Amino acid sequence: MTVTSVHDPSHREALWELEDAFERGDLVSVFGRCTVSYEGRAASDLGAGDRLLVLKPDGAALVHTDEGRQPVNWQPPGSEHHAAVREGRLRVRSTRDNPDETLTVRFERVHQLSAMAVTGGRDLELHGSEEDLRTRILERPDLVETGFEPRETERPSSAGPMDIFGVDADDTPVVVELKRRRVGPDAVGQLARYVRALKEELGVDDESDAEDAPAVRGILVAPSVTDRAAERLADRRFDHVALEPTPAE
Amino acid sequence: MTVTSVHDPSHREALWELEDAFERGDLVSVFGRCTVSYEGRAASDLGAGDRLLVLKPDGAALVHTDEGRQPVNWQPPGSEHHAAVREGRLRVRSTRDNPDETLTVRFERVHQLSAMAVTGGRDLELHGSEEDLRTRILERPDLVETGFEPRETERPSSAGPMDIFGVDADDTPVVVELKRRRVGPDAVGQLARYVRALKEELGVDDESDAEDAPAVRGILVAPSVTDRAAERLADRRFDHVALEPTPAE
DNA sequence: AGATAGATGTCGTCT
DNA sequence: AGACGACGTCTATCT
């Protein structure tokens, strides 16, 4: 059998089951009334309440309430789970180094504990990412602009790698920044850094950087931009090309 | 009793339990072998395997494998859960509008299904946040610099609200940007936008913005900065003050 | 509803 | 191990 499960166990019973599950490398879920405290990158305390504790064999720990996509407390993979009975109660502790942090869950009562040996696919096939957008442009550069010629992807610069580097119909260098969804001002800042770095690298002076024909162009490719982002694009004389990661149906 | 739990139920049994749990507003966990597909902001497919499905009464749905802090698939709060038996199998679907997205989990087999009525504390007391850092500085402005005087927090500007606005010992305006942990170049860009906005607002011309005494100063308060961030700070003639959100023990 | 910035963000990738 | 940027980021706050 792949699943073990106990209903309303004593704290000591719960401890045995937990230790066995850790030993087997099971994925564990514990329903119960507990308090939670965390100390590490920050520090937090959570009063008594019913929660779901998930313990993974890779060291991840998650404490979920009845609300939210995010766990109310957690510990990243690579941590170590320890269970014990202290003062007559089940205590589960998950710790890691670098940074030093500890998550402690103290159960007043355990309602349900289940453990399962996990097998099977872990590989997610995801479509619609920034990489899809890059592929799309490399296959059809004219989607960016007539005459646009990609020269390099992930081109290094002193400001980090730029998404796509190329030239336009006039052979002017072009830095393309890709975003898979609507963007705010931060993306323009990122593009500006790459353009500035490339200008420095090419030794462009302010003279040759004419009002109507910049020496290095910046193009932000994204489905859409916020008003503030549009302002900043105009300030910097960058262009925006509206494009989705995947063709509209 | 607050918890209901079934072991190796038939798909139809599982369906009844799920519908009851939705009705009661329970927090639900399902262990089983399933395939998962998502369609919405992106699209993804996940082949058969053992996973833990968590369904929350607020509409959140999480699919967890045995690895990682993040669910391999999910649906945010506000979604609607629907369960059905299709082709002899339990199918759980979670949908929402704006954006339109759907998560579908098809179970080949349900190993364990538990549901719990959740009561009790949801309020987390968290320490060590950016707000703690702000409080710390407002109580002891000299931690930033001798003579520093905070005047306003969240002061509005055309580039958005700045964390702390104040003046230094020479009555020069100071924009303070707070970060709770080590920062990269992006934080400097953010600070630069606020400083530029304030200069424009105050009508500072390049004349009065002397080499050694800027008309508006920028200070980045963070535990530490990366090399690249330090360069960009130097370029802009901004200062860095090393400070933690909470005093070191 | 959209916009903006924080987060114990997490996660992959590259140096 | 640190740095950097993407993410179906999520989440709170403000307009």
Sum this structure up briefly.
Chain A is α+β, with helices and mostly antiparallel strands and 249 residues long. Chain A has helices at 11-24, 130-139, 185-202, 227-235; strands at 3-7, 27-39, 43-55, 61-64, 73-75, 80-86, 89-96, 101-116, 124-127, 149-155, 162-167, 173-178, 217-222, 239-242. Chain A folds into 2 domains: 3-116, Protein Yojf, Chain: A (Distorted Sandwich), CATH 2.70.180; 130-242, Trna Endonuclease, Chain: A, domain 1.
What is the secondary structure topology, with strand pairs?
2 copies of one chain form a homodimer.
Chain A: E1 3-7, H1 11-24, E2 27-39, E3 43-55, E4 61-64, E5 73-75, E6 80-86, E7 89-96, E8 101-116, E9 124-127, H2 130-139, E10 149-155, E11 162-167, E12 173-178, H3 185-202, E13 217-222, H4 227-235, E14 239-242
The first copy, chain A, binds a DNA duplex (15 and 15 nucleotides) through strand 5 and helix 3.
EC number (chains A, B): 3.1.-.-
Enzyme class (chains A, B): hydrolase
Family (chains A, B): Belongs to the NucS endonuclease family.
Explained architecture:
2 copies of one chain form a homodimer. Chain A folds into 2 domains: 3-116, Protein Yojf, Chain: A (Distorted Sandwich); 130-242, Trna Endonuclease, Chain: A, domain 1 (3-Layer(aba) Sandwich). The first copy, chain A, has 4 helices and 14 strands. The first copy, chain A, has helices at residues 11-24, 130-139, 185-202, 227-235, and strands at 3-7, 27-39, 43-55, 61-64, 73-75, 80-86, 89-96, 101-116, 124-127, 149-155, 162-167, 173-178, 217-222, 239-242. In chain A, strand 6 and strand 7 (89-96) form a beta hairpin. The longest helix of chain A is centred in the C-terminal third of the chain and has 18 residues, at 185-202. Chain A is elongated, with a radius of gyration of 27 Å. The mean pLDDT of chain A is 94. At the A-B interface, strand 1, strand 2, strand 3, strand 8 and strand 9 of A face strand 1, strand 2, strand 3, strand 8 and strand 9 of B. Strand 9 of chain A pairs antiparallel with strand 3 (43-55) of chain B.
